[in-house]
Amino acid sequence: MLWIDCPWCGARPETEFRYGGEAHIARPEPAATDDAGWADYLFMRSNPKGVHAERWMHREGCRRWFNALRDTVSNDVLAIYPMGTPRPDASGGEAGNE
Ligand SMILES: [Zn+2]
């Protein structure tokens, strides 16, 4: 079973959480994008084999959202970090925004 370390509640089983999709998807200004750009924003997501930045919500606990870096091959959660902060690099250090 996958265990996720909620920043507020501690380690809990995956079944208490809701997956919220890929993290760091920036909403484009509607007037500044065309239909193809808007469709990309709505529907196109990366599907990496390896480290993936994801949004999670502790549905059966504090009900707060946070971001996680998860390796999609090993299912290891490599980092947990607040919404709105830059994605850390896979080794746990800080990196630039994506
Ligand atoms: Zn929690």
Automatic annotation (TrEMBL):
GO terms for biological process: tetrahydrofolate metabolic process. InterPro entries: SoxD, SoxD_sf. It comes from the Eukaryota. GO terms for molecular function: sarcosine oxidase activity. Pfam families: SoxD (PF04267). This is Sarcosine oxidase subunit delta.
